[in-house]
Amino acid sequence: MSARVTFRPHHFLCALGFQGKGYSDTFTANMAGIVAQLRAPGGNAVEIEVTFQADHICAPCPHRQGAGCEKSAAITALDLRHAAALGLRDGDRLTWGEARARIVDRVPEGTLERLCTGCQWHALGLCDRALSELHARVSKRA
Ligand code: SF4
Questions:
Q1: H or E segment and range at residue 5
Q2: FRET partner for 57 with CA separation of 20 to 30 A, picked from 24, 37, 47, 101?
Q3: pLDDT score of 1 more than 50
Q4: Cα of 118 from ligand 1 centre, angstroms
Q5: Which residue(s) pair with 95 in the sheet?
Q6: Residue 116: which of 84, 77, 86, 90 has the closest Cα?
Q7: Percent of the chain surpassing pLDDT 90
Q8: In this predicted model, what pLDDT tens digit does every residue of 71-94 receive, in sequence order?
Q9: Mean pLDDT (whole number) for 3-13
Q10: Dihedral angle at the C-alpha atoms of 126, 27, 116, 138, nearest 10 degrees?
């Protein structure tokens, strides 16, 4: 994989909360590799380019249809809510460290229920927990 990865807007929060769940074994293995790169030492420097089409996480997804998605209505709605929350536009480039800082500044705890409406993974609570842990780490440092 190149040094820069592509993320559709809602995948910034998905990458934060990822704990090995996915739509298929190949999807999960690919996402695990991307997330491992972000969580490794130096991962905050990984550059991410925002796209509103299928991204590096979507690449092996069984629901992907070319650059689109068979669940495009729900996925587009997710992307629009996350893009508004994070202040992201198509083609923006930011590092994972900048993305994490933006999540802390702009995504308060307890907001994923609204931002992530329709996502099958939300009920597991993993993403809410990851968001709370990120806020807690930052407030300890302050
Ligand atoms: S609840 Fe779903 S859309 Fe929201 S961050 Fe988690 S995996 Fe992503």
A1: strand 5-7
A2: 101
A3: no
A4: 9
A5: 47
A6: 77
A7: 92
A8: 999 999 999 999 999 999 999 999
A9: 92
A10: 50
Whose CA is closest to atom 7 on ligand 1?
Answer: 14
CA angle 120, 127, 134 (to 5 degrees): 170
Overall pTM > 0.90: yes
With beta carbons less than 8 A apart as the criterion, state whether 118 and 78 touch. Answer: yes
Which 8-state DSSP code applies to residue 44? G
In three-state secondary structure terms, 69 is: strand
Q: How far is CA 130 from the centre of its chain?
A: 12
From the CA of 116, give the closest atom in ligand 1.
4
Q: What is the CA radius of gyration of the chain?
A: 14
The helix (run of H) or strand (run of E) holding residue 76 is helix 72-86
Residue whose entry in the numeric block shows the structure tokens 């629009």: 80
Give the tens place of pLDDT for each residue, 45-76: 999 999 999 999 999 999 999 999 999 999 99
Write the CB contacts of 72 (distance below 8 Å, at least 6 apart in sequence).
Answer: none
Ligand 1 atom nearest to CA at 13:
5
CA of residue 119 to ligand 1 center, whole Å: 6
